[in-house]
Amino acid sequence: MASAEFDTGWESALNAAFEECEALGYGLTAEQQAILRRAIARSPGSFSAEATANPLEELAPDQRQAFLQYIDEQDRQNLPWKAQFLNDWLQGTASGEVQFVRDDFGLAWLERITPEHLAQYRQSDQLRVGDRIEIASNLWEWTQEDGPCPREWFPCTVINLTEPGSQVDGESIFSGTVRFDNGMEYEIQGIYDWNRYNWRWLGES
To answer: Which of 44, 85, 100, 131 could, after both became Cys, cross-link 2 (CB 3.0–4.6 A)?
Structure first.
């Protein structure tokens, strides 16, 4: 059994998640809340004090990239990502490229993730001049993930990084300039923000 301290801690965390769902207009029923509580009670070891390692380390690189992209997309829409994910889960809505979280890792794993865990991997995404990355064609053309015009990836080199004066919610917005192998250059606005989805490390797929 989990300690009383952790029982209290996770009860508070669950209540906070329920409140976020309510704020989104997707309030959970008493039965749905009970399902979540039972799921946690059945997995007490996942909430022990020893479970301090970053849960994102348990993901394969492609899973981690898809999961972080999902969170970034929810952030861009000003939606609490965890509440949205839990709501989709309880409503039986498919979760697309992050369905593996539900199928392979479960609620206990999801609830271990903290903002500090996410920050560890987001900090590792900081670019430097000279880094080799790939950028997606939907930066300059209309594409569809599953349509006749899917996005393509093009290798390039980061040649400049700038922090312009504009700010969003008190944070400066970075842009970056890359050079393709054919010599052409392209500037990416919001390279760590709204356009993070549109670049990846070279060889990462």
So the answer is: 44
